[in-house]
Structure formats: structure tokens, C-alpha cells
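# step 3/5: fold
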Amino acid sequence: MILSQSSTMSSTLALVMLILTFHKASTELFTALADMEELLETEAVLIANLDNYIRVQEDKLTQLRRRSAEYQREHTEAAKDVGVYLSNPVNAFLLTKRLTTDWREVENLMSYDVGSDFLENVTNYRDVLKFPSDEDLNGAAVALMRLQDTYKLDTASVARGELNGIQYSTEMTAGDCFELGRQTYLNGDYYHTVLWMREAMDRLSQEVNRTTTKADVLEYLAFSTFKQGNVHTALLMTNELLELVPDHERAVGNKVYYEKELEKEANQKALRGDDGSSDVPVDTSTNIRTTSNPHVYDTSERKLYEQLCRGEAERSVAETSKLKCRYVTNKSPFLKIAPLKLEEANLKPYIVIYHDVIAEKEMELVKRLAKPRFRRATVQNYKTGELEVANYRISKSAWLKDHEHPYIKAIGERVEDMTGLTMTTAEELQVVNYGIGGHYEPHFDFARREEKNAFKSLGTGNRIATVLFYMSEVTQGGATVFPSLRLALWPKKGAAAFWFNLHASGHGDYSTRHAACPVLTGTKWVSNKWIHERGQEFLRPCELQPDHPEEF
């Protein structure tokens, strides 16, 4: 064979061996940015493989062009005087050779599939590199829609790569917008489907090299518009689609259906107004929720939660003027020589932020130990007590024990100094990395009365307090918010938030219901210690009178 692929194949192999960690492809990559980083490594290998494939294809074409030029030169010379040319026995031999052995080589070169080895490479890479799944693609689309809703992002701005007025990335193509709309369509989210299909349509008119057609967009846009209740516009779009593709099977069927629906609407209007009065509006009764779920929050809380995430719900001067910053020792002998910087965030319940309480080297070690162990973060089912994944918590987490490294043990001892509570019954250090639009919707850290099985296996009582370390700066978003307090804590690397989840009486403090806002840009790393009741009896004793609200 004329072509040699050994050098290109070996260079690709070298790149693969350089970065391989020999793990199988995993799902839910969108739930942690730490995992998403490995996708760039996968892309680097695929780009190198593609470049080598193109190089070999170009070598093949170069050889074919050279042969063609040689044959054309001889053929042109022969055409000047065929008799003279063929009277030369050498020319006669060479013509015969060109049309036998030479052309067989050309045929072999033309038929040789230089891409098979490179396609096989891609297949093999799937066994050792991380590839995103269809679930990851859908999860990333859902996350982007969550960010768009929470932070009120304009569709056209996001498509331009702008987030809150800041240019972060290159523009999306019509095909990108179409795929995003298609993913939301698959989830039954027709509201966002309409937004992104319209953006795709707008961009189609501006693009020359299109990967998506107007007919593709109209098919999804028309049906989603219908699902949004606008039958008339859906019919107009369907008619436009049929002008482009007259035999479009679904469009033909939908057109008939939409026309019947419009006829029904017209008849209903006639019946309502047959007494001569104006059209009577259709009665749309409100659906009343008949089941209770502590993870479902009402509209007013969601609105306040999103306002806090956007930094719009400010606290009054009367509230903030009572808050102070100071150095504290918390009756700790060690802290007398190294006091902590404390900032009060709220007085009742008492929520504080300790600044500069975890060192850079400690944070880097915690991240390094946690990364290989990351699993999708779970929540406890409030009925069964079992751990399960949930769409309202998008992140990955790992757990680190004190004995694994002196730094981990030191962090636990520091939490004791910060809180004045014992760590003997505390949970292990949980490390969390948030993914695309990573968030944790409003929830309680403590178990409520109806959660009979929560923490039962630990035998250490309820979660009395939470310490939350911030281990990264977040460019936009990612605040910890307490809706009922109208309080937002913005991540600051090296700081830690602390609050009691329970009243001194042991009853849950429902005002500590909090949430992790979606990460808009940047990456969010946190770690936390959940401290339990057992062993705190004399460190945080009950008061003479119950300190919990009377309704409990």
C-alpha cells in the first residue's frame, strides 16, 4: 500500500496514553463541573484523531492528483500525433502499463478506506474516555433553562453568549438553538421550545452554512405553539411548513386537526354569545394540591427564592444596622492566640460567617481527595428514609473521614472551635461540586417530625447545626439563600457559614429553610459538616423555658 499511517496513529495513541485514566464512560456528567473538565480531554483526543484522518485523506488525494497529472501529461503528448506517439515502442509499452498495473494501483488507492482505522479509534476511545450521554445532553439543556428562568435571561442574549450583559462565549448557531429547543420539547417544556425555536428561526436568515432547515424548525415550533394554546398561529406555521414540504406526513395530519379545533372554538363562542351578550370567558378553576410534599414550595417562596438569587430582595437598614463584625475566641484556648473573624449575617436565628477559616492548601487537598469518589448527590426520602437522587438537587458529592489526612482532621477540630460543639457524633466532611446550573432548591438540613426514619441508622439524633465552607469564588450566582429571612450569603473562598438548625429545645427551626442558587458562571465547590445532637447536651443545654414557637 502506498499510504503509511504509522506516524499519525502513533501520535494519537501517545496523546491517549498521556491522559487516560482508564475509566468507563459514565453518565450524569452535567451534575459536576469537575467531571465536565474531563470532557475537554476527550475532545482533545478526538480532534487529534480527526486531524490525523484529514492528513491521511489529504495524502491520498495528493498521490491521486500526482498520478492524474502524470497521465494527463502523457495523454496530451500522445494526442498531438497519435501515430508518431504509438510508433515509439517505449510509448506503446508505457501506455499498456498505465492501463494495467498502474491503474490497478490507482484503483486500490481509490478504494482504500483510510477512515476505518480512525473510526475504530473512536469506538475504542468510548471504552476508556468519558463521553457524555443523551441524558447529559438533556440535563445540560434543563440546567440552561433553569438559569434562564431564575436569572431572567433574554433568549437572544444567551444565544449571543451573553450572561447578564457579560460576553462569556461564542454565539450559538441556528442548529445549536434548534437542538436546545428540541431537548426542551422532549421534556414537554413547550414554553422554552417556542422561545428557542423562534431564536433558531431568526438565526437561520443570517447564516450561510446551515445545518438546520426552516422546515425542521417549523415542525417543532408549530406543535409547541399549539400546546401553548395558540391554535390559529400553529395552523399558520403548519401551512408554511406544507408550502416547503407538501408531503410532510405529520404536518398534513396536524393541519386537519388544527382546523377542526378552530371550528370547535368558533362554535363555542357562538353558543356563549347567542343571547346577544359579549363572549363569556371560559371558567378556568384553580387546581388544588391534595397531597403534601415538604420538597414542593409555594409560588411566593419560589418568587422570593429567585429574587434572592438575583440579588434583588434587599434587607431593611433597620435589620442590617444591628449586625456586627468582630474577632472571637469562643472560649477556646487555641483561639486566644488565633481569633476568628466573625461576621453576623442574621440575629434570629443566629447565622454567622467566619472569614479565612480554611487555607488554600487545605481546599486543594480536599478537592483532590474528593474528585475520584464523586457520586450524584442524594437526598433522603421523607417517607422511607432511603437515599435517592432528585432533580431539585444537581451536584456531585463525596465524603472524607478525619483519619484520611491530617488536614481533614484539622478541619474537624477547627469546626469544634468555631461552634463550641463536639464532633464525635458529626457526619463526615461532605465535599460538593455543582454542575451546569447546579443548585439545591429550598430544603431543611434537619429531619422534621414526620421523617421518622431520618438518621435512624446513625443513632446520633437530629442535625443540630450546619457548617458550610466555601472553597471557590463563583463568578455569578451560587448564593446560599434563606427565603423566609430574605437573606443571601454569597460564596467567598475560604469563608464558612454557621447556623443552628434546631432550637435549644430540640425542635426544628423552620426559618433555617435554605437553598443553593443555580451557578450561572464559574464553578462552585463547598464542603460541610453536619453536627448532630448526641453529645451536645451540656455544650448547648436546654433553656428553662422552651425557645421554640408555641405552635410546636
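# step 4/5: annotate
The chain has a mean pLDDT of 86.
# step 5/5: archive (pending)
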